[in-house]
Specification:
The structure holds two protein chains of two kinds. By secondary structure, chain A is α/β, with parallel strands linked by helices. Chain A contains 20 helices and 13 strands. In chain A, α2 runs antiparallel to α15 and α9 crosses α10. Chain A starts with a helix and ends with a helix. In chain B, a hairpin with a 7-residue loop joins β1 and β2. Chain B has two domains: about 50 residues, no CATH class; about 230 residues, MetI-like (MetI-like fold, Orthogonal Bundle), CATH 1.10.3720. By secondary structure, chain B is mainly alpha-helical. Chain B is built from 14 helices and two strands. The chains are: A alpha/beta, B mainly alpha. Chains A and B meet through α1, α3, α11 and α19 of A and α2 and α13 of B.
Chain lengths: ~425, ~300
């Protein structure tokens, strides 16, 4: 008996120790701590400056910026949400958004936004639309990106080709790529990776096609969409781009930075990195994407979203509104990290890198198309390389590959 | 051991006396509690949840619904699953080729006099290096355009390849890295086994006229066989679980080889953490567990034929 009691007492002590261990981090000074997860080291200084600005206005709130490595970002977030330990605030992408919104993992800030008097017209409508579920707000746009032609002036000059401009059509782009390609010097006219956001989605819409049709089903096998894919497969067939294998070993942006490719169709989000390369900087030019039947570019953007299971919903909503607000947008613009979503704050971004004609990306909003998202988008976009790869490598024609991919997308959407 | 020879009355006496010094049995449980709780929390419980989930359709968030053996039937009919299983088997076979290499190297290092420790450290370095860092470096070595390997091959007139972007080569390329990474730990185990072999056997056989090679096959190998067995079992288990090398070396948006190079654990990761299909992922994990158990059991069966215990 006596031993038994002693044993229970010891267990109680252990339990008590464990309990204090858990509550130790809570703190008793009334200070609220919010974690803010991101995946970009490039943007860390700007995010910390935003956190600091918010803390200055809310001395009782401490915001901790965490940078998670990109390859693990989504699995970490998902496991965190499932285990109730997700960060309070985090960056969200459109293709991941539906799963989180449907799974009720995101904090509904509709009322808080209304109470704070935020004018939603200050954000690009296409970006807001990406994150629209039943008219509820699960966050506010942080930034946006559109696409253009990043080109290397030195390579253009050497080949005696005129720089791209807003009159360019697909034929002009192809002709220039042909003249720029110089196998002896190891230079290609263009990089043609399998890249939906910067690459083939744009050409599909430029050709008048769609990725997801109005009926909510895949439409990537329509003749227009196929011609959008062929723009890229033809570049490979003509040998105007490094092969897919080369682009697998060395990313397209790296090839561009190594001055091995003269043109790279991609997003505004590379500006800071390209600008940061002193040797490359004077050679970089920007132009709008070439048009076919029409002009088009994908627009996308990051959402500042909050975790529904947070301990501090009120403070979190305040932070999300602030982090996507005008002051935060100005901080982002100045850092040059990205194009802030808040209206009329983009000038700071343009001014941060005056040598680049970045206005192209802001003007592109006028003809921009929201990134096509449907159903479990992360799942079917994950299949693109498997299905489109053979067309890019010339092992299958684009129409056949598109048909197979179309079926695969519809299978995912039907689930 | 000794209690077996103690007569019953004596044993009782011992116990009573111990009772005065040692606390009640409850204390014993308390002492093993940390290990026990850890085991339950980090092994038993996750295993049971995984097992349960493998019979459910589990969405990204929220509770799952029971679907019986649907995940398993889908799995067995999934060509990608069999492909992954084949890739894992091939990778395991390649890593097993590393075992003889390790045996020979261990025997050679044993011959080295003063610098032995240095060699051990050199071979052990990859073991204590982050697999991700290793994969990054090998990714550069294997780069089709600028890689070291292709450069060296070009010197001897062999055309270069895209080692980690061409499905013909990926598993072999990754297998070489796997062997290199596991060499260190295998050498430690085998080295310890070698030191357990009595030196006088070599001396006696030398007197009888046995050469180095004959000694290796007639003395070293049989007496080392328990260590070789251990190394083989560990190699198979870890090879079947390989994930990180594929994840870091092959994952690139434009890598068309990835689809054909997935290992079983990579497929599990993709299902459970990219596609959020946790039930299917759990079923893969359970099947992998069964494969590993079967492989290990088989080896224990086969060891009777070749492992020599003195």
């Amino acid at each position: 008996m006596r031993h038994g009691k002693r044993w229970i007492a010891a267990a109680a002590v252990l339990a008590a120790l464990a309990a204090t261990g858990c509550s130790g981090s809570g703190g008793g000074d009334g200070k609220v701590t919010l974690s803010y997860a991101t995946w970009s080291d490039d943007q860390k200084p700007a995010m910390e400056a935003i956190a600091k600005a918010f803390e200055d206005k809310h001395p009782n709130i401490d915001v901790q910026v965490q940078v998670l490595p990109w390859p693990e970002y989504w699995s970490t977030l998902q496991v965190g949400a499932a285990g109730r330990t997700a960060p309070d605030a985090f960056w969200m992408l459109a293709d991941q958004f539906p799963a989180y919104a449907k799974g009720k993992q995101l904090l509904d800030i509709t009322d808080a936004v209304k109470a704070a008097g935020v004018d939603l017209a200050a954000y690009p409508k296409a970006v807001l639309d990406l994150y629209d579920v039943d008219g509820k707000l699960y966050g506010l746009p942080k930034d946006f990106d559109t696409n253009g032609i990043w080109f290397n002036k030195a390579l253009f000059d050497k080949a005696g080709v005129a720089y791209p401009d807003d009159t360019w059509t697909w034929d002009d782009a192809r002709a220039a790529a042909r003249k720029l390609t110089n196998p002896a010097a190891g230079v290609w006219g263009i990089a043609a990776p399998i890249d939906r956001q910067g690459g083939y989605y744009n050409s599909i819409y430029q050709a008048g096609g769609k990725v997801i049709g109005d009926d909510g089903k895949a439409a990537i096998d329509s003749p227009e969409a196929v011609s959008g894919l062929q723009f890229w497969t033809q570049l490979h067939a003509d040998g105007l781009s490094p092969t897919l294998k080369q682009l697998s070993d060395t990313e397209a942006v790296q090839m561009f930075m190594d001055q091995k490719v003269a043109m790279y169709f991609s997003g505004s989000f590379w500006a800071q990195r390209l600008y940061g390369d002193q040797a490359l900087r004077p050679n970089v030019g920007v132009a709008p994407l070439p048009k076919a039947k029409q002009r088009a570019t994908m627009i996308s953007g990051i959402l500042n979203a909050g975790y529904a299971g947070t301990k501090h919903p009120k403070e979190l909503a305040e932070f999300l509104i602030f982090a996507s607000g005008k002051d935060a947008a100005v901080i982002q613009a100045k850092s040059g990290a990205v194009l802030p979503a808040y209206q009329d704050t983009q000038q700071g971004w343009l001014d941060a890198m005056p040598e680049f004609n970045l206005k192209v990306f802001v003007d592109a909003v006028d003809y921009s198309v929201p990134l096509p998202i449907a159903g479990d988008a992360a799942k079917w976009t994950g299949l693109e390389t498997q299905y489109l790869g053979p067309a890019w490598e010339g092992k299958q024609n684009a129409a056949e590959a598109a048909r197979a991919y179309n079926t695969a997308i519809n299978e995912v959407l039907a689930k | 051991m000794t209690t077996d020879v103690v007569s019953p009355p004596a044993r009782q006496r011992t116990r009573r006396r111990a009772g005065g010094l040692l606390p009640a049995p409850g204390w014993g449980y308390l002492m093993i509690a940390p290990a026990f709780v850890g085991l339950v929390a980090f092994y038993v419980w996750p295993f049971l949840t995984t097992f349960g989930k493998s019979f459910m359709d589990v969405p990204a968030f929220g509770p799952g619904t029971f679907t019986g053996v649907d995940n398993y039937t889908e799995l067995l009919g999934d060509a990608r699953f069999w492909q992954a299983l084949r890739n894992s088997a091939l990778y395991t076979a390649i890593l097993l080729l590393g075992v003889p290499v390790a045996i020979v190297l261990a025997a050679l290092i044993e011959q080295v006099g003063r610098g032995r420790a240095l060699y051990r450290v050199l071979f052990f370095l990859p073991v204590v290096t982050l697999p991700v860092a290793i994969s990054m470096v090998w990714r550069f070595i294997y780069n089709g355009d600028f890689g070291l390997l292709n450069y060296v091959l070009s010197l001897v007139g062999v055309p270069g390849q895209y080692w980690v972007a061409d499905a013909t080569f990926t598993i072999y390329a990754v297998g070489v890295v796997g062997i290199w990474m596991s060499l260190g730990i295998n050498l430690i185990i085998l080295g310890a086994g070698l030191q357990g072999i009595p030196q006088d056997l070599y001396e006696a056989s030398a007197l009888d006229g046995a050469g180095r090679v004959r000694q290796f096959f007639r003395i070293t190998l049989p007496l080392l066989s328990p260590s070789v067995f251990l190394v083989t079992v560990l190699t198979v288990i870890s090879a079947l679980q390989m994930f990180d090398l594929i994840f870091v070396m092959l994952r690139s948006v434009n890598n068309t080889a990835l689809a054909d190079s997935k290992t079983i654990v990579y497929l599990f990761y993709e299902k459970a953490f990219v596609e959020f299909d946790q039930g299917y992922g759990a079923a893969i994990a359970i099947v992998l567990l069964m494969v590993i158990m079967a492989a290990t059991l088989l080896q224990f069966r086969l060891q009777r034929r070749w492992v020599f215990y003195d």
